[in-house]
Amino acid sequence: MQSLRSIALSAIGLLLVLAAFVFTASLGLILAGLVSLAMIGSALSARFSAKPAPVRARSNSYSAQAASNRDAARNSGREPRIWNDGRGTIIDL
What we know:
2 helices
């Protein structure tokens, strides 16, 4: 009778450990699935989002050098451009 009780308790303990393992593994798989869905959504969002348009900047300084630089830029047909490409601000003079 004593050995039957110990076998039953061992079997119950083994089943509890197995159930805990299955529960933990299923939670891990669910978490991995959610993270992968978030990464796929982020990649698709980045692919289909609109690209930032460059912003044209003009000098507001009234010094003689700035005025001559501004006139030279106007005469050459090129204005300085400032835009952010997502990794930092770019200033194209």
